[in-house]
């Protein structure tokens, strides 16, 4: 799950499909955070960023990483 929020503009997290080996979770999180920091709009929250991209686009990012686990790829 990714991108939920609390407060005035509360929203549910988006469920993604797939599994990442526990020893690789740090790398995936680091890549997602880097992508967010490089692609977000000014002052855009992570929840708003995920909402703007859409579940399918975020899932595609995860799929790219999962398909390349042996190659240590990142986005």
TrEMBL record:
Alphabetized Gene3D superfamilies for the sequence: Sulfite Reductase Hemoprotein, domain 1
A Pfam family the protein falls into: NIR_SIR
Keyword Iron: yes
Endpoints of the signal sequence: none
Keyword presence, Transport: no
Alphabetical UniProt keywords: Iron, Iron-sulfur, Metal-binding
Residues of the Nitrite/sulphite reductase 4Fe-4S domain: 1-67
InterPro entries the UniProt entry points to: NO2/SO3_Rdtase_4Fe4S_dom, NO2/SO3_Rdtase_4Fe4S_sf
UniProt-recorded name of the protein: Nitrite/sulphite reductase 4Fe-4S domain-containing protein
Species annotation: Desulfosporosinus nitroreducens
Highest classification ranks of the organism: Bacteria, Bacillati, Bacillota, Clostridia, Eubacteriales
């Amino acid at each position: 799950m990714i991108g939920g929020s609390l407060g005035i503009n509360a929203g549910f997290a988006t469920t993604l499909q797939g599994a990442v080996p526990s020893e690789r979770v740090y790398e995936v999180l680091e890549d997602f955070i880097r992508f967010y920091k490089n692609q977000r709009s000014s002052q855009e929250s992570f929840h708003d960023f995920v909402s703007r991209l859409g579940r399918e686009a975020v899932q595609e990012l995860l799929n790219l990483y999962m398909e390349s686990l042996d190659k240590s790829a990142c986005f």
